[in-house]
């Protein structure tokens, strides 16, 4: 029986996550599903007979496909046209979300072509060679982020007037970042970047919602430094633009109180 844990056992703990290689591994497992089992059994029916395991594994594959789409854009920035892989990406999405299975017969007829899996593995090698930042995380960046994490946690605790929804979400994201930065956990720099993106976006909301000028500046300063730590974060350009705008106008301060 295929479950979430089995999808993770194909990667050695010391091997960095690579979306193309991970998908190839998952798809090979799904393709080997026994012919007398239905779609849910092959992709991960829970032991209690529910289909939750199937959909959790589907989400894993979908998240990896989103990651792969991002990496294809990065490859294009490195001079490798993503158009060569767009049709492959379409077939991957169809295989994950719209499997052509004989539902009424309860049989598992759905497979992805072995050539597509080989194509994914080849793409994985290309990603490893051309985008090292896709699977490496610098220890200095980790230490810097841990320091910022502590600052953000302290500032969040002091912003007692912030809406509860913002404080709760920020606390959850900071906890998530702490887990991702734990060297004992299997993590990926892209996961850290996406979490940073969410944190910096939420810190912007906090800047607008916070009433105290000194806390506004602290939150903005932390957001900018989070974004600068890993400059590929999608929030970086947004935060930089805000940082370059007139502080007193953005924060609603009267002249002479922006420092």
Secondary-structure element series: HHHHHHHHHHHH
Low-pLDDT runs of 5+ residues are 1-16, 231-235, 253-259
Counting helices, strands and paired strands, the structural category is mainly alpha
SS summary, helix count: 12
Number of strands: 0
> What Rg do the Cα atoms give?
22 Å
Mean pLDDT: 75
Give the N-terminus to C-terminus distance in angstroms: 62 Å
Main pleated-sheet profile: none
Instruction: Give the proportion of residues in helices.
Output: 55-70%
Bin the strand percentage: under 5%
Shape: elongated
Quick recap:
The chain is mostly helical.
Question: In words, what does this structure look like?
Answer:
The chain has 12 helices and no strands. It is elongated and about 60 Å long.
Features:
single chain; 259 residues; mainly alpha; 0% strand; elongated; disordered N terminus; disordered C terminus
Secondary structure blueprint with pairings:
Blueprint: H1 4-8, H2 19-31, H3 39-43, H4 52-77, H5 83-97, H6 114-130, H7 139-158, H8 164-181, H9 189-209, H10 213-229, H11 236-244, H12 247-251
């Amino acid at each position: 029986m295929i479950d979430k844990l089995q999808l993770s056992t194909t990667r050695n703990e010391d091997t960095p996550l690579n979306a193309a290689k991970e998908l190839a591994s998952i798809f090979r497992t799904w393709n080997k599903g026994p012919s007398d089992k239905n779609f849910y059994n092959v992709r991960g029916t829970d032991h209690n007979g529910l289909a939750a395991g199937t959909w959790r594994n589907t989400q894993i594959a979908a998240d990896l496909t989103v990651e792969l789409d991002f990496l294809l854009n990065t490859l294009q920035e490195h001079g490798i046209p993503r158009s060569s892989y767009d049709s492959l990406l379409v077939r991957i999405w169809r295989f994950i979300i719209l499997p052509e299975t004989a539902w009424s017969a309860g049989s598992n007829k759905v497979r992805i072509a072995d050539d597509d899996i080989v194509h994914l593995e080849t793409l994985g090698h290309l990603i490893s060679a051309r985008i090292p930042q896709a699977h490496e995380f610098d220890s200095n960046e980790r230490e810097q982020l841990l320091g910022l994490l502590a600052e953000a946690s302290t500032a969040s605790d002091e912003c007692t007037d912030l809406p509860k929804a913002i404080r709760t979400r920020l606390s959850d994201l900071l906890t998530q970042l702490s887990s991702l930065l734990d060297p004992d956990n299997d993590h990926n720099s892209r996961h850290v970047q996406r979490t940073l993106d969410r944190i910096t976006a939420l810190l912007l909301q906090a800047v607008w919602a916070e009433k105290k000028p000194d806390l506004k500046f602290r939150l903005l300063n932390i957001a900018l430094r989070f974004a600068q730590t890993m400059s590929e974060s999608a929030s970086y350009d947004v935060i930089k633009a805000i940082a370059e705008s007139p502080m007193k106008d953005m924060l609603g301060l009267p002249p002479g109180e922006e420092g």
